[in-house]
Write a structure and sequence with these properties.
Helices cover 45% and strands 4% of the residues. With 137 residues, the protein is mostly helical. β1 and β2 form a beta hairpin. It contains 4 helices and 2 strands, in the order ααββαα. It is elongated, with a radius of gyration of 19 Å.
Length: 137
């Protein structure tokens, strides 16, 4: 569904410390969880109520990686029990998960385009060569 994008801004009551990693986050995605929530906490846009969305985003990212592995191992086509070729189910799951990652990443302000919108500005002025001060040039 298309519509206006959410404008995130610092929220009153936002988390000031890193929340614990939920048990549902796969072990190889813990660093990703910590990176996302620490950035959101730093920008003061994460509240306890938003943790479920972050969790869903991280699980979707993990699903994308797992589907990419399955496609690399088995290819885009697989054989049925009768030897007929059919699309690898991982391709459909990859497509849905990629859409979720893109949508949730934008909603959470994790993409450059989302950060450029009102509410994501860090207000820190320009750094070297006109770049944002936190950008390494």
């Amino acid at each position: 569904m298309k519509g206006a994008k959410a404008h995130l801004k610092a929220i009153e009551g936002g988390l000031s410390g890193l929340p614990p990693v939920p048990d549902t986050i796969p072990a190889d995605m813990v660093d990703e969880w910590q990176a996302v929530v620490s950035e959101m906490v730093e920008r003061k846009i994460l509240a306890t109520t938003g943790l479920g969305i972050v969790e869903t985003y991280i699980i979707a990212r993990w699903t994308v990686r797992e589907c990419q592995k399955a496609l690399a191992e088995h290819g885009p086509l697989t054989k049925t029990a009768h030897g007929m070729l059919k699309p690898n189910p991982a391709a459909a799951i990859l497509n849905k998960s990629t859409e979720s990652v893109a949508r949730l990443g934008a909603e959470l302000g994790l993409t450059p385009a989302a950060r450029s919108k009102q509410g994501f500005q860090n207000g820190g002025g320009k750094g070297k060569d006109g770049a944002p001060p936190d950008l390494q040039v």
